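Homework help board

Subject: predicted structure for assignment chain

Our instructor gave us this sequence and asked us to write out the predicted structure in token form, then describe one feature. I got the tokens but I'm not sure how to describe them. Can anyone check?
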Amino acid sequence: MNQSDQDIPLDTFPKLLQSHVRSRPDQDAIREKDLGIWQSWTWSEAAVEIRALACGLASLGLKRGEKLAIIGDNRPRLYWGMTAAQAFGAIPVPLYQDSVADEMAYVLDNADVKIALVEDQEQVDKLLEIRERCPQLEHIIFDDPRGLRLYEQEFMHDYQKIQQVGIEFDRDHPDFYEREVAAGSGDEISIMLYTSGTTGHPKGVVLSNDNVIITARNGIVREGLTANEEVLAYLPMAWVGDNLFSYAQSYVAGFCVSCPEDATTVASDLREIGPTYYFAPPAIYERMLTQVMIRMEDAAKIKRNVFHYFMEHARKVGVRILNREPVSLQDSLLYKLGNILVYGPLKDVLGLRRTRLAYTAGEAIGPEIFDFYRSLGINIKQLYGQTECMVFICVQPDGEVFADTVGTPAIDVEIKIDDNGEIVYRSPGVFQSYYKNPESTASTKTDDGWVHTGDAGYFDDNNGHLKIIDRAKDVGKLNDGTLFAPKYIENKLKFFSFVKEAVLFGNERDFSTAFINIDLDAVGNWAERRNLAYSGYIDLAGQQEIYDLILDCVNKVNQDLSQDSRLGNSQIHRFLILHKELDADDGELTRTSKVRRSFVGDRYNILVEALYSEQKECHIETEVTFEDGRTGTLAADVKIRDAEVYPVKTQSRDAA
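My token output:
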């Protein structure tokens, strides 16, 4: 290739790969931890691997426009599979690696997948279980051969053998790879990503190269990202955020992505890598903070006192220092001392010392949690996005970070609020269609490119930032006409470290009620420090002391709601602590950990009705799915408690 990048439109990922081979051939592109050792591949080394795999896939008959499923944890070879397919216009379709076989069967069949590239025996076994239901699935390629020695089906292929076949194919067809890469274009389909399926079957979101690459480039420009960033790829490859942060932006900017050894080593691998650019959903930030506070409660008194003293100072001035606002010399010096004694070591423990940009999205994050990280000097910001636009709708600008907003429109994004309060947008990232679903496409995307988000919100009059209230379809009314925004209240409950999940009920009812899932780590530690014995989640969730603990959280939320004239009457009157943790394997959560509200309401209807009766306790038996796939039944007598309801603050005539 003698042409310069200025002569070649970098509008596909294989073309971006070729560009990096020319401009930074010896810079690390991706690394993986295996048996405790980090192994790295440069851009030029990755290009060799990808070319061999692409030619191997072509030798199996994969053609332009056909689908390659990608299933497994974050692995270089799986990411290479995406680029290899895109090299000749085939379309990668990542699936959630923890999906059960039936969930995979739906996506594989709906997407017309021809070849599946999977990580290991676990994924192979799931595909073999459903293969008869997916007759279009012709080949399965596996990365890790352990446990597969006796699998002799002709349609099964070892990854390395496919690469070897690809090398031979490349030798026999020397012009094939270059010609196919050159034929790719920005308007060609880049990837299909499936929605989480909160309210039904997942939908295949069809995204072009332009959708993905332009959006990735705009995000890089807005935040000033460079080829020197370090990123840890640990979130599911099937999730749009991983495709943006760990794949698309890496290829556009040229930075290195690191894959952890496995799910159990993410925290230690994070500390070793020290990413400069990091994304995590609120639950992960909350879990990290919970672990810190648990450790500090067990620390020696002098260490605990030093920690709390400097954290109090950080809460006072840390955010102002991060925003480069003036503080007194004394406060500045004390903060620097705190950085030596507390903040720096704490960021080392969290793995975030080098992080200059961190994002969170998907759910609201508690103001105290948000301020905790920012007070340490970690530039954590909220963004608002969807699969249908390759993530970016809004991002908080530096220096304008508020816990209750999601920021201002991203580059080239237009936003408006329609007459019923729903947020609609238009951007270069707007998807092409839902695959084989023209009805949903037409109801979501207008002919002139506006997309209905399904979220209700408004722009704040004071700072112009977008605020999200709830899913538009979930916003309802109590029988007295009070606005009922369940997600808004659920998020307030989840701001407490003791509450892992909450599900609100109240639409077309006289008052609001709630299911609560306790956080087993946080509540378990609280119980142990008070010498409360328990045998497991069910036992702990039913104890009187735990109900008192959660009652305090509910009452604080009610007190906060009472200050809002619009939502004050939606205070929680009664609640219960659910006898089991909500679980994706039981259909109660999506694979992205979003609560399937209507499913939960239907499944536990007996408990919902008990909340709206005079009952103080309700017996329930629930079928559950265990980690090994077996099913069983959990039986429990679930207690119901009344909460404190506070007088609602009314708007004064002068204020009105």
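Reply (TA_rk): Your tokens look well-formed. For the description, you could write something like this. Confidence is low (pLDDT under 50) at residues 652-656. That's the kind of observation they're looking for.
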